[in-house]
Amino acid sequence: MQGDRILTGNEACTLGALAAGMNFFAGYPITPATEIAELSSELLPKRGGTYMQMEDELASIAAVIGASTAGAKAMTATSGPGFSLMQENLSYGMIAEIPCVLIDVMRQGPCQGVATVPAQGDFMQSRWGTHGDHPVIVLVPNSVSEAYTETIRAFNLSEAYRTPVIVLSDATLAHMSEKVRIPDVSELTIVNRKKPTCDPKDYLPFSNENHQIAPMASFGDGYRWFVSGIVHDDTGFPVTNRPEAIRDSLDHLLGKLRDHLADIESYEEYRAEDAEILILSAGLVSRSAKSAIDRARARGVRVGLFRPVTLWPFPEARFSALCARAKTVMTVEMNGGQLAEVAAKYVDRDQTLRPVTQNDGTIIRAETIFDAILEVC
Amino acid sequence: MSEQHYEMRFGGSGGQGMMLMGDVMAQAAGIQEGKEVVLLKSYGPEARGGACRSELITDTEAVNYPALTRPDFVLAMSQLACDSYTADMDRENGVLLTDAELVHTVPADVKHAYAIPLTRIAREETGRPITANVVALGAISVLSRGAGEDAVRAAVLSRFPEKLHAMNLKAFNAGAAAARALL
Question: Distance between CA A14 and CA B106 in Å, rounded?
Fold first, then answer.
């Protein structure tokens, strides 16, 4: 089915996942993510994959992690309330280093909030929703095309780094249709986890020298390994009484991403090179920022955009370099100012931080951003 | 946003095929004509009845804001849709198309307002009132700048199995002819 197609964001996530090799989906329906489950339930069985309708979100992420240990490329999709319920097992996937993909289609929160409108209130939840220091990769597409390509990248990163990867969509992106170029399979780069080739007696499922990623055996391959949520050494067994082993384990979880930032980070700069006003914005609303930037540039205002596509780990090296040249840093976001808290880390006392936030279930218009630009320039 | 930026809204009540119209027009403009498109749909919990709409933006450049800001074209297939969905349209240059038998009151200040008995034409041409939205698509391909007649016709046919092509072509061509007669 290559070529241009008109797809919704939810359809693009599903087709991206299938292109990446998804062969297992477990989920529980929730607005505005339901169509991902719906389309997966239709397409997976036709391709020899498995769709499981679960009893709730706790079971959904548990099934996804379990399927991945059996070798599946597994995904679930949910929205805020379900994302909250998945946090506990998400950290299980992180410490046990199980690749999987979770799509959170953001709606207005907190709690049940407003099910049918977009928001960006889960930026911080995607970073710190589960307890303890943990590795996290979060990708934020801003178009239906990117919903397709970033879901593929989510699978690739999860397989490469043996960790759950989260894609943050939103209620509008999920349901709007745009043109997506579906590439030929031969054009896609698909990453699959390394499998052990050693003698099963010598298999160390969590060897972590130099933060290299240990090969992962699938249950049934003939390798015995212990999968646990307890801090473990390279054999997988608990190390609760050995401080240096606890340190090494945690250091590896964080270090395996930190040492590969160049591969993981992704961002877009739009007219940012000489920007005196630097806008930080992610997701669909960043497109309104682009329109505002074009209008302001036409009036001679030096304003530009830094858009993290990989929101976490935050691409701080490039952002801080651009920040250093700016007089004002502005965030454009559909929450109370979560990106502003990130930006504050990089803003000096003589610079201004101006959050443009909107929490009313609508996408911020270019005019609102344009007005804010004129106020600060 | 370029000069080719064009905003369309298809409003009616649940069951009249407003969602399908959005899909067809997006296909026509985006795939057949290669434009950039953004399509948004909005509907209540009702499967039948209740106002619903789909909204399409077409442009030769990337569309940044996904919602309509000032519709250039509005279709109203019910009085409720006409009352609910015309307030923000371009009065001066915008085009309003209504189903002449289902919409009795149209805003007086819209300069280019056309009334065509879309549902009656559907009944007469195909014996199937449900094809009224395809009649409308024929008219829209003539009255709007969203996508040209050939592109919309091809997109309509791509949506239906071959055994339904003759019926839908009939509906489409009748709608296009009715619109041309008004110009």
Answer: 42
Q: Give the burial class of B166: count Cβ atoms within 10 A of its Cβ; 0-12 exposed, 13-18 middle, 19 or more buried.
A: exposed
Domain boundaries, chain A: 3-187, 200-241+253-261, 268-376
- Residue A266 pLDDT more than 80? yes
Smallest Cα distance from A8 to chain B, Å: 9
Beta strand ranges found along A173-316 (DSSP E): 177-182, 267-270, 277-280, 303-308, 310-312
Provide the whole-model pTM.
0.96
Reported as a single tens digit per residue, the pLDDT across A46-79 is 999 999 999 999 999 999 999 999 999 999 999 9
Name the pLDDT band for B47 (thresholds 50, 70, 90).
low
CB contact under 8 A, A366 and B65: yes
**CATH for A268-376, options being 3.40.30.10, 3.60.15.10, 3.90.1150.10, 3.40.50.920:** 3.40.50.920
Q: Give me B22's structure tokens.
A: 């959005």
Chain B CB contacts of A6 under 8 Å are 23, 26-27, 30-31, 37, 39
Domains of chain B in start order, with CATH, are: 6-182 (3.40.920.10)
**Three-state SS at A78:** strand
ipTM, two decimals, is 0.93
CATH of domain A3-187: 3.40.50.970
Q: What pLDDT shows up at residue A219?
A: 96
Task: With CB atoms and an 8 Å threshold, state whether A176 touches B66.
Answer: yes
pLDDT tens by residue, A221-257: 999 999 999 999 999 999 989 999 999 999 999 999 9
